[in-house]
Amino acid sequence: MVRTTSPFLERLAAGPLLCDGAMGTELYARGISYDRCFEQLNLTNPELIKSIHLEYISAGAQIIETNTFGANRYRLIEHGLEHTVSKINRAGAKIAREVRDLSETPIFLAGNIGPLGHPLSPLGGISAQEAREAFLEQAEALLQTGVDLFLLETFSDLTEMQEALSVIRNLTDLPIVALMTFGEDGTVASGEDAQLVAQQLRASGADVVGANCALGPASMFDVVVTMSGSQIEPLTIAVQPNAGLPKRVGNRFMYGATPDYFAASAQRFLESGVRLIGGCCGTTAQHIAAMKKVLVEYAPELPHQEATMIEHVRERVRVRETSDETAAHLPPTQLARLLQQRKFVISVEMSPPRSVKFTRFLQNARTIQESGADFINITDNAMARVRMNNIAAARLIQQHIGIETIVHFTPRDRNLMALQSDVIGAHATDIRNMLIITGDPPMHGDFPNATGIWDVDSIGLIAILNKLNQGLDARGRKLAVKSAFCIGCAANPTATDIEIDIERLQQKIEQGAQYIMTQPVFDTDTLLAYIERYNQRYGKLPIPLLAGIQPLHSYQQAEKFHQEVPGLVIPDGIRTRLREAGEAGSQLGIALAREMIDAIAPLVQGVYLMPIDRFELASELVAYIRERVLMQQSAQDGEPDRIEIDAAQ
Prior knowledge:
Elements lengths: L6 H8 L2 E2 L5 H6 L11 H4 L1 H14 L3 E3 L7 H4 L8 H19 L4 E6 L14 H18 L3 E7 L2 H14 L4 E5 L13 H10 L4 E5 L4 H13 L7 E4 L5 E4 L2 E4 L3 H13 L4 E2 L7 H14 L2 H16 L5 E2 L4 E2 L4 H7 L4 E6 L8 H13 L3 E4 L11 H11 L4 E5 L6 H13 L4 E4 L21 H12 L16 E6 L6 H14 L3 E6 L3 H15 L6 E5 L5 H10 L7 H10 L3 H16 L5 E4 L5 H15 L20
C-alpha cells in the first residue's frame, strides 16, 4: 500500500511523545477482577473506561490506547463473546474518540491489538490463515470507527507479530507501532534477540518498533539499546515498561516502581534516542504525570506549543482556568461571589429584542448599568412570546456593556438533548448565572399551536446543571471538566397552593439550587408568611433569597395582572389605592415599590426588579436602593455602597 504523510509520524519526528499507562491495573484498582473480560466493559461500563482515559490525558498522555488489547475472537471465546469482536472494538474506539472530544486536547488515538492468546501452529491449533482472519476482523472494526494509528503490543512470538503486521499493512497506510515482550536474557519467547526482532518488525511494515511489558525500566533499557545499536537505517524506538516485577500482597498484585523512578528512567530513555515512552502493567496516571514533567524539560518547545494552542482558544472565549487533580475550575461568577459574601445585590429584568436589531436593547442595558444595578436578568420567551434567544442577548450585553447577566432558562422549548447543548454553549461563552423556571405554556403566546416539550421540569433541569457542575452529563457519564454554573430557582409566595410550592422549592434546593428569585411580591406579610411556612417545615432557608419587585404604574395594569396573569396576586388594598390615585398611579406605583423595598430589605439578600421595559422606573428604584438601603459601609472590604446581611436573619 502506498504510504501517505501521517500527522502522527510528523509529530514524532519533531520530538518525543508520551503514551498512556496500564488499563488493566486501573480497572483492577477499581474493583474489576482479573477474571473479568476487561474489553467487554466498553459495552457494559463505558463511563469507567472513559474516566481512566481522561485521567491519563489529565496526567499528560499524548497517545491514548483503545481498551481492545484482548478483543479478538480467540480471547473473547473464553467469555462466550466471540461473536462481539466488531462491536467491542468499535465501542472501544468510540469511547476514545469521545474522550478526545471532551478533553479538547490534541492527542492521538491508538487502536490497541494484542496477541491472540493461543499459540500458532505447529505449537498450537491456530493456523496462519486463521490468525490473519482474526487480526483482520479486529483491525477493520478499529479502522472503521476511526483511529490515528495501530499499536500492537505484548507479542512474544515474532511470527505471530509478523502476521498481524502483514494484515494491517495491507489494510491501511496508518502508522503502526509494534512492541514485543522480552525476557531478562534479551530475547522473545520464540527465540529471536532484540536486534533481529527490530530488523524483522521494520521489514514487515512497522513504523515504530520497541518493547513493552514483562520488564521494568532498567532491563528494558538494555533491550532498546540492542535494538538500535547496529542498524544501518536509524529506527524509531518505543518503550512501555512495567512498574517492576509484581509481588502478591494478599489477593492483590502490587508493583513497586514509583513515579519518581519512572521519571528518572524516562530521562535515560530519551537521552538514548527513544521517541515514544509510556507505561505497561502496574503504571498509573501518577507514573505518566511524572514522565510528562521529564518530557517538558527535555523538549520544552513541543509541549509548550500544544498548551499554548489550547490556551489561545480558551482566551478567545474568556475562560479562566486553574486545575486540580480531576478537572478545570473557573472562578465563581460575580453573582455567586456576592451571594457567598452575604452582600445585598440588585438585578433588573430585561426582555430580549423581538428582531435581529439590538441597538436599543444595548442602550437600555447601558442605562441599567449606569443606574448602579449589579446584574441584568434576561427572560426566556416570557409569556411564550418569541424573542431573540436570551443566551445570545446576554452575550451581547456582557460583551458590549460589561455587566454580568442572569439568564432565565426553561425546559418548555427544548428537549433533553437541546437543554444540555444550550447550557454547555452558554457556559462556553461565559454565561453562567442561570435562573431555572418552568416556563409559560405555548397556548398563551404567539404560537398557540406550538408544542411544549418539558422532557424535564425545572427541578430536573436544576439537577442536570448540578451534575454538570460535578463533571457529569444528565445520564451520569463523566465529562472532561466540571462546569461552574451559579444555579437559581424560582419561588412563588402568592401561589394558589403554598404547600406544593414550598415542597417544590425544597426539591429544587435538594437538587442543587444555589439561590432563589421570587415571583413579584406586593406586600411584606405574604413574603414573611411564605418564609415562615418554609422554616416550619424544613428549617431555616439554606440559600439566599432575592425578592421580586414589580413597580406598577396604573390601576388598569394592576387589575390585568391580578385577574389574567397566573401566579400574580395583587392585594385588594394596593389595587384600591391605585384606583383612587387615578392619573397619579405611576407615582404611587413607585412609592409602593419603595415601601416594599424598605420593609423587606432586612429580610432578603437582594431584590429583583421587573420594570416591564420602563427602565426609567428601574433606574429610579436602583438609585433609591443605593441611597436608602445600601448606605452602610461593609466592615470587611470597605465598599461604600454595600451592606452585609445579618447571618442570623
